[in-house]
Amino acid sequence: MSSLSRDEVARVAGLARIDLTDAELDRLAGELDVIVESVARVSEIATPDVPATSHPLPLTNVFRPDVPVAPVDRDAVLASAPAAEGGRFLVPQILGEEA
Amino acid sequence: MSDLTRLTAADLADRLASGEVTSVEATQAHLDRIAAVDGQVHAFLHVSGEEALATAADVDRRRAAGEQLHALAGVPIAVKDVVVTQGLPTTAGSRILEGWVPPYDATLVERIKAAGLPILGKTNMDEFAMGSSTEHSAYGNTHNPWDLERIPGGSGGGSAAAVAAYEAPLAIGTDTGGSIRQPAAVTGTVGVKPTYGSVSRYGLIALASSLDQAGPVTRTVLDSALLHELIGGHDPRDSTSIPEPVPALVAAARQGATGDLRGVRVGVIRELQGEGYQPGVLARFEESLDLLRSAGAEIVEVTCPHFTYALAAYYLILPAEASSNLAKFDGMRFGLRVEPAEGPATAERVMAATRGQGFGDEVKRRIILGTYALSAGYYDAYYGSAQKVRTLIQRDFDAAFARADVLVSPTAPTTAFRLGEKLDDPLAMYLNDVATIPANLAGVPGLSVPSGLSDDGLPAGFQVLAPAKADDRLYRVGAALEALLEQSWEGPLLSRAPELEVAK
Q1: pLDDT digit string (tens) for A69-83?
Q2: Which residues of B touch A80 (CB under 8 A)?
Q3: Is residue A68 part of a domain?
Q4: Do B371 and A15 touch (CB under 8 A)?
Q5: Which residues, other chains included, contact B136 with Cβ-Cβ below 8 Å and sequence gap of 6+?
Q6: Is residue A69 a part of any domain in this protein?
Q7: What's the whole-model pTM score?
C-alpha cells in the first residue's frame, strides 16, 4: 500500500482548502502516514463478492408533501455572517486577477 | 436545598409533579452547583441561567394553573454544543464557529423546549466531536469529576462530566463512534446511543452523517429511557429518521429494574475483550456477567470475526464523510473569516486561510485523511473497501443476534487516562473506541452502564448492544444490571466519587 509523503499531504490539504504551516505539514505527514498504513488493512477482507454498505438502515425515496413552509428568518441568518450587505452575504471576489 | 442536585431526573420529576419543589428551585440549585464546581470541571462552554430560570418560572406557572405537563417538565438539562440552539451560542468546540448564534433549533431541542425542560447551557466537547478525551476542544479541557487530572472521555466529555458532577440531572450527547458511551464509562454515568434514525439529526452539526446519532446522558438507566422517549421518534425534516414510534423504553427500564432476566439470552462478544483491556475492567465485566446469570439470563459466547477491522473501516468512513460535511465552513456564511496575510483576497484563498486558522489539529488530520481516501486513484482501495467491511460487520451482528437477544462487552478498554497522555499519539487515542465503533457502523443501539471501580479506583463501563429498533432491550437489561449492582454496592457508584471542592 502506498505511503503518504509530505508533498502528497500538501497537495491534499490544497484540495481540502486548508492552509498549513511548514511545521504543520511536517508533523501531519508523519502522523497521517502511520494512520493510513493502519487503516489500509480494510482491503485484506474487502473481496469483490462483498457488496458495499453506505447506510446503516435501508431507506429509499423519502418524500414529504410538497407544501411550502416558512424559511429561517433572513436577518437572523445574516446577523451571524462574517459580512452582509443589502440582505445578502458579502463575500470576497470569487475569481483571481488573472482570470 | 442543595440536595436537589443529587436527585435522579425521575425523582425530581415526581417532586415537581407533587408540588413539593418548584422548577425555579431545582433550576437555581443546579445553576448554583455549576457556579460552585464548574471552575474545576469545565463541563460548560456557555451557561444560560437567565433563559433556564425563565423557562422554569413558566413551567411553575403552568403547573400551578393545572395544565397537563410532560413528565420531565421543569427538570433542567444540559445540551452538547454540537446541537444547535436558537439564541444560544453554538461552537461545536471549534474556533471557526466562535460567537455563532444559530437562527433555529434542532428538532430534539424543539422537543425539549416544548416539554418545558430548562436548558442550563451548552457542554464542552472535542472539536466537531472528533476525539475521545475532549482535549481537542478549542476552549480548554473538561476534567473528570472522579480525578480532575484525568480525561472525562470524549467527544461528549462535557455532558458526561456535567451529570457526574451533579451540575445537571440530564444531558444530551451525540455518538458517532462512542462519544456518548465511552464518556459514560469513564465518568461512572449512563449513556445511550439509540438506533440510527431513532432520534432526529436535524440541527446536529454533522460529523459523519451515516454514523451520527444523538442520545441521552444521565446518571440512571430509567432517566435515559425518559429522555430518549422525549427526544426520539419520527421527524420529517430528517430523511433518515425512522418513520415509526420508538418502542416503550420507560416500561422496559421499569421491567428490568425488577431484576428478572429469565428467558433473556446474553451474547458475550469474544473479539471485544482480552488483549488491550485493563484487567480491572475485565474483572468488573465478568462480575456483571455473573449477576446477569443470577438474574436468570442465559450467557452464550458469540464471535464477530470482522470486528477487528471495524476501527480501520471507521477511520476511513468517518474522515471521508467529515471532509464533505465540514466543507461548509468556508468563511462565507457563518463563523470565522480570515483574509490571507499576503496576496489577493479571493474567495478560495480566504477559505483556505479561514480553515487553516479556524480548525484544530485533529480536525485538519481527519479532513486531510478523508480527502485523501476519497481522491482519485485511492477511492476503491480505501473508502470502497471500508464500505465492504461495513457489510461484513453488519453480517457479524446478524449472526450474533440470531443466537442472543443482546450482546455485551466492556464499553471502553481502560478507565480514564491522564490529561495529555495520548494527545501526541492519534492512533492510541483512536483505540479507546474499539468496542463502541461496531454499533455505529451497523446502526444498532448501545448503552453503557457503570460496572464498578477498576483496580485504580476509577469507574468502568458495561456495554449492552441490541438489534436495530430494539432499543427497549438495552433498557431492560441495563436497568436489571444497574439494580443488581447497586444492591451489591448499597447505593449508586457515583456516591463513591470524591466530593468536589466547592467554590465560595
Answers
A1: 899 999 999 999 999
A2: 99-103, 334-335
A3: no
A4: yes
A5: B93, B126, B127, B130, B154, B155, B360, B361, B362, B363
A6: no
A7: 0.97
